[in-house]
Design a protein that fits this description.
It contains 11 helices and 25 strands. It is an alpha/beta fold. The protein has a 5-stranded parallel β-sheet with strand order 3-2-1-7-19. The protein has a 5-stranded parallel β-sheet with strand order 9-16-10-11-12, covered by helices on one side. A 5-stranded antiparallel β-sheet has the order 21-22-25-24-23, with helices on both faces. The longest helix has 15 residues, at about 285-300. The chain is globular, with a radius of gyration of 23 Å. It binds flavin-adenine dinucleotide. Flavin-adenine dinucleotide binds near residues 99 and 287. Flavin-adenine dinucleotide binds next to helix 1, strand 2, helix 2 and helix 9.
Length: about 400
């Protein structure tokens, strides 16, 4: 049995079904698996609902996957090896995968419970935001991470006046270094997005309309940014309630071993809800890799345990190429090679560690496949120079011990 039908639950259910296992999936959402990364396109009007959904209902029937849509698992009872649904119905399991994902984080800012404050995680959220965007509702986006920028661009495409507020002094603080972030900020502003960095939101201002909806975000410096929709994109927290109540070991996520097994040998966890070696990911590549290992382990067939996922992120805004790879902040510090052209809005950076490619940032140009393929592999300095397009050698020697650069999304 699989609880949750995001990318982790979907991937595992598919593998289990293809191997002949009887699979039941329980999901509180009312649609079968859909692509969350396309929600901004849906809001912008570039994709309709049917395009987001991966497979028709018939596909599930053909695969023999029994899917219960619109049902919540309220309780897991490990001793009885069964789950209890919100309807009160109980379902037995032989092996159980928790793929319950995460919930958007609401920072401790006054007024975030007011009507008109929303987060974006599900299709249902996106439907409501889309209606408000169509009505050109002035919007304030709290958070200048990947999601915040993509949503802001989608709203702007609808003609809704949109302001992004980021408390740190730069955008994509987890993915970019200062040089790349400065160029990105200039580019998104050129594209017409209103983006403010280094601003602290003190409270959400309410009292507008008959329902007392929001009217803006008040900044610590005294100004108020007007908006009747406040969208919070401040990262995601793993959904742990089921696991905790079932007595499983939880920390920041549901604690799993290399076989994605929780502290109960019949229960597994994968995706945004899982924590492996003290780390949670919050990304699709990690959810897919974990789900594959979990499905194999559930069938007792796993050969190679999970060993972590190399971070990889792209910003999906039309006309804007940005990809960041790797974990360049890990110790020891990397050797860095940077080619930057602020006028053209281009920034390319390769980070080598012990002669291997440890990370890369590519802004304003498509990252060549050769870069992503080389991640983790040996790379000569000459080759790195060629990839970033450096004409002459010796413009900069490898620095010792690089500086703070990208990290990853779960706390955007
Ligand atoms: C708009 C948007 C764009 C994104 N773009 C990218 C991107 O480009 N690249 C990237 O790597 N990541 C991206 N992400 C993050 C990515 O979507 C997540 O990392 C991924 O969805 C995690 O998959 P998951 O299956 O672990 O969890 P989820 O996708 O969160 O799915 C968990 C599911 O479990 C259900 N559930 C939870 N509890 C229960 C319960 N008790 N009973 C029944 N069902 C339950 C939830 O309703 C949910 O449907 C994006 C996220 C959003 C919102």
């Amino acid at each position: 049995m699989v609880v949750g039908h995001g990318i982790a639950g979907f991937t595992a259910a598919r593998i289990l079904a293809d191997s002949g296992a009887a699979v039941t999936v329980v999901t509180e959402e009312t649609r079968t698996y859909y692509y969350r990364p396309r929600l901004p396109d849906f809001i912008a009007g570039r994709a309709d609902e049917a395009e987001l959904v991966a497979f028709p209902d018939q596909w599930y029937a053909e695969k023999g996957i029994h899917i219960l849509l619109g049902h919540r698992v309220d309780r897991v009872e490990p001793r009885a090896t069964r789950v209890v649904l919100d309807s009160g119905e109980t379902l037995p399991y032989d092996r159980l995968l928790l793929a319950t994902g995460g919930t958007p984080f609401l920072p401790p800012i006054e007024g975030l419970k007011a009507p008109g404050v929303m987060t974006v995680r599900t299709l249902e959220d996106a439907r409501r935001i889309k209606e408000m965007a169509k009505a050109k509702t002035p919007t304030v986006v709290l958070g200048g991470g990947l999601l915040g920028l993509e949503i802001a661009a989608a709203l702007a495409a609808r003609g809704a006046s949109t302001t992004v507020l980021e408390s740190s002094d730069r955008l994509l603080g987890r993915q970019l270094d200062k040089g790349a972030a400065d160029i990105l900020l200039a580019r998104v502003r050129q594209m017409g997005l209103e983006v403010w960095t280094g601003v602290d939101v003190e409270r959400v201002v309410t009292g507008g309309g008959t329902e007392g909806g929001v009217t803006g975000a008040h900044l610590a410096e005294g100004r108020t940014v007007k908006g009747n929709l406040i969208l919070v994109t401040a990262g995601v927290r793993p959904n742990l309630d089921l696991a905790r109540a079932a007595g499983l070991s939880v920390n920041r996520g549901v604690v799993v071993d290399g076989f994605l097994r929780t502290s109960d040998e019949r229960i597994f966890a994968a995706g945004d809800c899982a924590e492996w070696e003290g780390q949670t990911w919050g990304t699709i590549p990690a959810a897919v890799e974990q789900a594959r290992v979990a499905a194999a382990a559930m069938m007792g067939k796993v050969r190679v345990p999970y060993t972590g996922t190399i971070p990889s992120n792209s910003l999906k805004i039309a006309g804007m190429d940005l990809t960041s790879l790797g974990d360049p902040e890990a110790e020891p510090g990397p050797e860095e090679l940077i080619e930057s052209d602020a006028d053209r809005g281009v920034y390319k950076k390769l980070m080598l560690r012990d002669g291997r490619l440890a990370g890369a940032i590519w802004l304003g140009d498509k990252m060549p496949a050769a870069v992503s393929k080389a991640l983790g592999k040996e790379m000569a300095w000459d080759e790195a120079e060629k990839l970033v397009g450096r004409k002459k050698r010796g413009l900069a020697e490898p620095s010792s011990g690089g500086h703070a650069t990208p990290r990853f999304l779960s706390d955007q």
